[in-house]
Amino acid sequence: MRLVLESFNLADAEKRLCTEALSNAGTIVEAATMLGITRHALKRRIIKHDIEWPKPKYGPNAVPARRAQATQATQLSRAAQDAVLRTNASANATSDDD
Asked: Global pTM?
């Protein structure tokens, strides 16, 4: 596959390569293998470049239902953890005032 870059901007090129690999591969592991990097390195680049992943639930690039549900559960779990941390922080701030 041939990829034409619109500029010599290295960050844009890296983002484009990651996006193309994710689009062509079925999984993050396969995309990372295509790029010659580890899946952890690819995940760091996904975060760095704010690449939308996992793929949408519906349409030709849909994520299998189990993976989408696992992702949602993880996001809910993180939201719950954040809520607990905020509650504990506000409780500690209140007790410090006493």
From this structure: 0.54
Q: What Rg, from alpha-carbon coordinates, does the chain have? A: 19
CA atoms within 13 A on the CB side of 93: 6
**Burial per residue of 10-24, b for 16 or more beta-carbon CB atoms within 10 angstroms, e otherwise:** eeeeebbbbbebbee
Q: Both ends of the chain: CA-CA distance in Å?
A: 66
The answer to whether 50 and 44 have CB atoms below 8 angstroms apart is no
Where do the structural domains in the chain lie, given as residue ranges? 1-53, 63-98
Kindly report, residue by residue over 55-66, the tens digit of the pLDDT.
Answer: 655 555 565 555
What six digits make up the tokens of 92?
A: 């500690």
